[in-house]
């Protein structure tokens, strides 16, 4: 098994070769369950910051964005395997009422410095954050788990990933 230094060098080499235009951190297991994933995503965020790349964090990915800025996580109830409505920032989402899927049992404790809350759940948990300067955004829902992508999600992702900072 390669050591951490070899893994970091390998990822750095791969990133240099691929030269991504953006980073997407996916959902999945909780932070701390797999140290190698945590280290990889830390390196990806450092790379994104160094290269001024946009980042979209989905569910665990949003949690990891907050973790990167030293924000802790808290346990939440009734957010696994359900749909729930969101309170959306009208500036961000227009007049759309949001109902999204939910597959998480953790939420971020507070909004990281430099970010704004763009959506909350009705039980006051943060569901979306955005940092305009960095072009980093996080959503606690899974757009890939919808039958059809929500128009608002497509617009926000395109805006984030295509506009230059």
Gist of the model:
By secondary structure, the protein is of the alpha+beta class. Helices cover 35% and strands 27% of the residues.
Summing up helix and strand content along with how strands pair, one would put the structural category as alpha+beta
Look up the CATH topology: Rossmann fold
Number of domains: 1
Largest sheet: 7 strands, mixed
**Order of H and E elements:** HEHEHEEHEEEEEH
Look at the structure and give the CATH class.
Answer: Alpha Beta
Q: What percentage of residues falls in helices of 4 or more residues? A: 25-40%
Tell me the Rg in angstroms: 16 Å
For CATH, the homologous superfamily is named as Class I glutamine amidotransferase (GATase) domain
Q: How many β strands by DSSP? A: 9
Estimate what percentage of residues fall within beta strands.
25-35%
Distance between the termini: 39 Å
Poorly predicted spans = none
Overall geometric form: globular
In round numbers, the mean pLDDT is: 88
Strand order, largest beta sheet: 1-2-9-8-7-4-5
Helical segment count: 5
Under the CATH scheme, the architecture is 3-Layer(aba) Sandwich
């Amino acid at each position: 098994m390669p050591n951490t230094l070899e893994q970091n060098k390998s990822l750095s080499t791969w990133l240099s070769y691929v030269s991504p235009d953006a980073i997407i951190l996916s959902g999945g297991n909780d932070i701390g369950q797999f140290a190698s994933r945590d280290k990889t995503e830390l390196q990806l965020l450092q790379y994104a910051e160094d290269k001024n790349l946009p980042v979209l964090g989905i569910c665990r990915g949003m949690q990891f964005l907050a973790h990167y800025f030293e924000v802790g996580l808290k346990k939440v109830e009734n957010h696994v395997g359900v749909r729930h409505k969101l309170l959306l920032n009208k500036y961000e989402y227009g007049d759309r009422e949001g109902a999204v899927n939910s597959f998480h049992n953790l939420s971020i404790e507070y909004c990281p410095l430099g970010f704004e809350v763009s959506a909350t759940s009705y039980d006051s948990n943060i569901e979306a954050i955005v940092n305009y300067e960095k072009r980093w955004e996080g959503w606690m829902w899974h757009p890939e788990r919808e039958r059809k992508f929500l128009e608002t999600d497509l617009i926000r992702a395109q805006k984030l990933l295509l506009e230059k900072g």
